[in-house]
Amino acid sequence: MALFLSIPLAAQTADSVLFAAYLREDMTAWKAYVDQHTDLLYEYGYCGYIVAEAKKDGKQSLLLEAKRYVARFKQHVEAQKNSLPKGHYEMYMSAVYVFELRLKESIHPVKAMSLAKDATKLAPTDPMVLTYYGTSLFYAPKPFGSKQEALEWFEQAETYFRAPKWQYCWLRKANEMYIQQCKEKLKNN
Fold it and tell me: 3-state secondary structure string, 78-95?
């Protein structure tokens, strides 16, 4: 791990190392990376992880850390607002609102869902945006969420994730997992 942090890595190399860590469910590598880099995609992923961990029984000691990472992520999203690809600001701010909601820091579920939907209108072929909206639908309670509708968004994202540039993107792999989960849940209902 020390070598990983001490040598500046090309984006693809960092992505391949972090992708391998994701597959191993080793988020210590992600924490080390986001502590040293402002990379919204990995901050978003790490915030999702740390917020989920902090909500588990016996892990409440992580709440302050989760709040700190979410606040930092929000600050970075706002700072990059005008330089982000279309739909990414809306996607990331939606995620911030979801994280804050889960941490009881704010209550904006309708705003979060609205921003996620807006992101798809701004970036209808961006697999990151499409999979994020699918994830929003997957986790949202009825009447806001729908596993069937989520599956449609995940499958649409999957077609765009086939491009070589997404080879080491953890969201591509997460999208595949969500497709399987949706199919299983729909089959069992």
Answer: HHCHHHCCCCHHHHHHHH
Judge residue 105's burial from the number of C-beta atoms within 10 Å of its C-beta, 0-12 exposed, 13-18 middle, 19 or more buried. middle
Interatomic CA distance for residues 67 and 63, integer angstroms: 6
Cα atoms found within 13 Å of the Cα of residue 19, Cβ hemisphere only: 15
Q: Does the pLDDT value for residue 13 go beyond 80?
A: no
- Whole-number Å distance between alpha carbons of 20 and 125: 26
Place of tokens 């953890």: 170
Is the CB of residue 17 less than 8 Å from the CB of residue 9? yes
Whether 99 and 47 have beta carbons less than 8 Å apart is answered as yes
- Name the strand (E) or helix (H) holding 35: helix 27-36
Is pTM beyond 0.85? Reply is: yes
User: Which residues are CB-neighbours of 182 under 8 A, at least 6 positions away?
Assistant: 138, 147, 148, 150, 151, 154
pLDDT at 6 over 50: no
**Nearest-CA neighbor of 187 among 156, 147, 155?**
147
The crossing angle, in degrees rounded to 10, of helices 88-102 and 109-122 is 160
Sorted by sequence, the CB contacts under 8 Å of residue 21 that are 6+ apart come out as 27, 28, 29, 30
